[in-house]
Amino acid sequence: MGNVRHVRLACLLVAIAPLCAWGALGWAAEPQLPAGLAPGEEEPRLPAGLEAPSSPPDAPARPAEPELPPGLVAPPEEARPVEEAGPVLPFEITGFWEVRGGARLRDDEHERDASLGETRLQVQADKDVSGVELRVTADLLLDAVADRHAVDLETGDGFLDLREASLVFSPASMLDVKAGRQILTWGTGDLVFLNDLFPKDWNSFFLGRDEEYLKAPSDAAKVSAFTPWANLDIVYTPRFDADRFIDGRRVSFFDLPGERIVGRDAALQVDRPDEWFVDDEWAARLYRNVASYELALYGYDGFWKSPAGRQPATGRATFPKLSVYGASVRGPLGRGIANAEVAYYDSGDDRGGGDPDVRNSELRLLLGYEQEIARDLTFGLQYYLERMLGHGAFLGTLPPGAPGRDENRHVLTQRLTWLTMDQNLLWSLSVFVSPSEVDAYLRPRVKYKVSDNLSVEAGGNVFVGRDDHTFFGQFEDNSNVYIGVRYGF
Amino acid sequence: MTRLMVFRTCAHLALAALAASPGFAAPAAAGAEEPPPVEEIVHRANLVSYFQGRDGRAQVSMQITDNQGRTREREFTILRRDEAASDAIDGAAYRGAQSYYVYFHRPADVNKMALLVWKHLDRDDDRWLYLPALDLVKRIAAADKRTSFVGSDFFYEDVSGRDIELDKHELIDVTDDYYVLKSTPRDPAAVEFSYYNAFIHKGTFLPVQIEYYDKNGEKHRVYKALQVETLQGYPTVTRASMTNLQTGSTTVLAYSEVRYDVGLPEDVFTERFLRRAPRQYLR
After folding, report:
1. Using the beta-carbon criterion (under 8 Å), do A76 and B229 form an inter-chain contact?
2. End-to-end distance of chain A based on CA atoms, in angstroms?
């Protein structure tokens, strides 16, 4: 008891002592030398000129003094003439050249053994013309694994993948317009998208191309308005831009009606909504910051981005109508960043859920947290819920014996990123696990920056699952490893 | 480039103390030298290192040389804007929230990436990184500021400033050219050093050399100002180095096209200009 009281008193004194010292400093108008404060400090220090207790024994009594640098020796020099930038090209060119190869880890009777075998030259050119910024990013590609070589700018097939061809201008000070082919992203998820309905390239993602290829380009106009109260983005896509979805040509998948895995032998045939200004898409985001928190509301009107239905007559896959409404918040929590996002997927062609040929409406929820848990080691955790609405009606439409779907699909994701060797060697592991579907997806990756221009990397995409029909389980035979070399310029 | 400063637990008390000592009355020190109070040295060094002018911009080139002589280079443009309109030391009026915008040019794999930092006095920084290939605005946790900045020997905190209140500062020596400060972290567990000595140039209050000592008392990091120029009336370090004595790696920073009081609008430091680089200020 007495000890506790002593400790409390000591704590109080320690807390008050510096305040007293500072009070004295303020009122005395003649502050003591810092060393003179030592007696009153809670942490007594030896005065100036004496060795600190932690100094090495051979440390000089006075810290050795540096030479004055140029500019401080004499009266300050006149300013050096400003160095002019080097000769300027008519436009700025950057890019990279890359070689990438990958192989399947399991024998997939539906696909080639090689998962990747390609070389790619990306060239990006930028130019400002009287207040308008022009940008073109084009990938020239030789793909030894692909079956189709005719250039298709929508699907990315062929030797040319046009990633961006856009112009940006400001018709008014509070307005930005970006028009043309462009990559678009918003939302708070890490590799999980709720309100971001811009096209994704799932083939590239699962086969081990660089993460930037998860995003496929949109041909759209984005108008952004900035006001003191909130900012608004509106994206209009005059003709539907689907995902570069899994169709069996490169990645085999579970064909629901056929109830079997199919691949390039039976690639998915689709009816794509493709009428200009009729089969169009609208996406909007209203957002603002409140202190350190970013708040956003989202809306989308268009189509399911990957096939989510079937034409009963032809058996071709369809992209039914879809509207999405959602919201998100992101900001600091503890020592990390937390995010939450919700979205309501309104499947307009099947509101009741009783149409077996159209995907049901859904409610989606994402909770995430990321923190640097040690120096250069970042850990991220997410919980994702996909809840089917009208689940009872859905079950009623299932043919006998057909694999059903749970009402709730739960997915946990984690991402570990570790930078070593002066941040030149990057280790990363993303894991997606669904306890409800009993399947998982692992993305290990290691990348070494040999020099400023040259990097090498290796990684894998590993799918495991109990059943053939679950989201990750269906891709089990597509598990692969890859290596890549990239030279940037 | 630097970190320095003040004693105390409560900032406003310290500032009140400063304000209440008109003209920073000279201490009753023995000898010819009558150095200003340590907190004034610390504030002035903080001002000239990180807060000069209403705003500023510079072209930065960084050369990282490892112990085997291999070099890596970084090039970026840095924009800074101060919330405080004043550069006054009195009442620490210069000190306030700041915004930083860093636009990367080189190496190729970070070209056109942009980093936005909102520095607050009362809470953790807000940081965003824009990845142009994905059009992704990524929020970054600000937790550890003593991690390498873009793989160099400089830490985040070296580039944008260490909060002067995180350390206790003592004036341990006065030479013909320098005030020598010893700064000890208030929370030793939060940092890799046990203390650091800073040689503050008397005329300009620029830190000319800062030596960090590790937990064993060994000197392990050294910052040096290599070149100083007076630009628009502001003494400015235009070349500086940071050496890691434990790894043998050195980073040399060179600032060019330094301009102060550019008139950077507040909205340059928002998501709008993360996604669309404010080119007129980056050239």
Report:
1. yes
2. 71
